[in-house]
Amino acid sequence: MHEMALCEGIVEIIENEARKGAFAKVKTVWLEIGALSHVAPEALHFCFEAVTANTIAKGAALEIIEQKGSAWCLACSRSVEIAQRYQPCPACGSHQLQVTGGEDMRVKELEVE
User: Fold this and answer.
1) Which residues are annotated as a binding site for Ni(2+)?
2) Which phi and psi angles does 5 have, rounded to 5°?
């Protein structure tokens, strides 16, 4: 389950920001997660609660902002929205798509005290 490692990375980011910003408690963490990132939001919620148990983010809410996947179709020269890899272009049916967005996961915002 790579979500556990992702949550450990999120906690590391939070702790680094706490040192810079001198805050002692995190109330909410907003994450942007791309549709093509291979991250399961349900598993992330579960792991987040476990990993933050003894940190300044204990009890913090985890809010997930889902980002759509996008690709450039080499056949019809259009930017298209896709829900998963290897699906055909919704405009022309070609499978010649180059992913251009929706692969990332990032901490967007922290609500702190």
Assistant:
1) 2
2) -65, -35
> For the segment 48-78, what is each residue's pLDDT rounded down to a tens digit?
999 999 999 999 999 999 999 999 999 999 9
| Cα–Cα distance for residue pair 15/55, rounded to 1 Å | 8
Binding residues for Zn(2+): 73, 76, 89, 92
Binding residues: 2, 73, 76, 89, 92
Classify domain 2-112 by CATH number.
3.30.2320.80
Instruction: Please answer whether residues 53 and 41 qualify as being in contact, where contact means their C-beta atoms are separated by less than 8 angstroms.
Output: no
Domain boundaries, given as residue ranges, for the chain: 2-112
Pairing, β 78-82 against β 61-67: unpaired
DSSP-assigned beta bridge partners for residue 112 = 26
Tokens of 17: 């920001």
Q: Are 78 and 107 in contact (CB under 8 A)?
A: no
